Amino acid sequence: MTQRGWSDQLPPDRAWKPRPGMTRAARSGEQDRAAGGRHRRIVVFNEDNQATGSIALRVYRRTRRIRAYLRWSEAGRTRESYIGEVDAATRAANLLQAWAMARSAGLVRDEALPAGSKASSTAVRAVMTANKSRDTKPERQLRSLLHRKGLRYRVDARPIQNLRRTADLVFPKARVAVFVDGCYWHGCPEHYRPALKRSQWWQEKIEGNRARDSDTNARLREQGWTVVRIWEHEEPDLAAAKVVSALQSRSATLASLN
Q1: Bridge partner residues of 231 (DSSP)
Q2: Beta strand 176-181 pairing with 226-231
Q3: pLDDT in tens, 35-51
Q4: Kind of pairing, strands 167-171 and 176-181?
Q5: E strands along 75-223, which residues?
Q6: What is the pLDDT of residues 43-94, one digit of tens each?
Q7: Cβ–Cβ under 8 Å, residues 80 and 107
Q8: Which pairs with CB-CB distance under 8 Å and at least 24 residues apart come from 127-135?
Q9: Cα distances (Å, whole numbers) of residue 22 to 29, 80, 189
Q10: Which residues does 96 contact at the CB level (< 8 Å), separation at least 6?
Q11: pTM of the model
């Protein structure tokens, strides 16, 4: 790659420095995006030991160029290996360059699938792992917005005690149950993409989840509950508005019955 350098000045901060105030989690997410996922950041050392790597960008003042280093932790100590020079105009693009160079040089590899995994690849397993069953980011954001509106609710609870179905948020008095559905596991019409490998197994799995969701909706409604379904990709403010609207509608209905 031809390095352009910055002929008469140092590279701009935006080309290599992280944003001021970035948290550790934000920096890790930045590395994940550049590498193509956390599962693609594996550094192997001493034959069978491995660690999650990261890229550090530094300016080499004499040449006014940006150097990229692969860093990882080994036996409690930070190790690093020089990768090469990068020359994009932004930090994100330079991290992307550096990860591609590290992979091309054989310095990093994808995480190996554990024995017995049903995922067809490490990429699929990463998606599956990211889809936690509770306390996901969309759930936390929704809870925070509703709490700020003065609403109180039960978390991860059964709307009906003798029915083994758990809602993410339950408003017992209003009899409103809220489910925040993951796009992958519940077959989101916008974002779900059928698996190319083991397609029949995954199709049956997702269809089974959809059928269970429909059955849950029907059973709760039979018992006088209002069900609110929210996709994880929905904007938090809009999701909160859907819940508030359902609660207001229930309040109006209950008031008319009294």
Answers
A1: 181
A2: parallel
A3: 988 888 999 877 668 89
A4: antiparallel
A5: 77-86, 154-157, 167-171, 176-181
A6: 987 766 889 999 999 998 888 899 999 999 988 899 999 999 999 999 999 9
A7: no
A8: 127/184, 128/184, 131/182, 131/184, 131/185, 134/168
A9: 10, 22, 34
A10: 34, 88
A11: 0.51
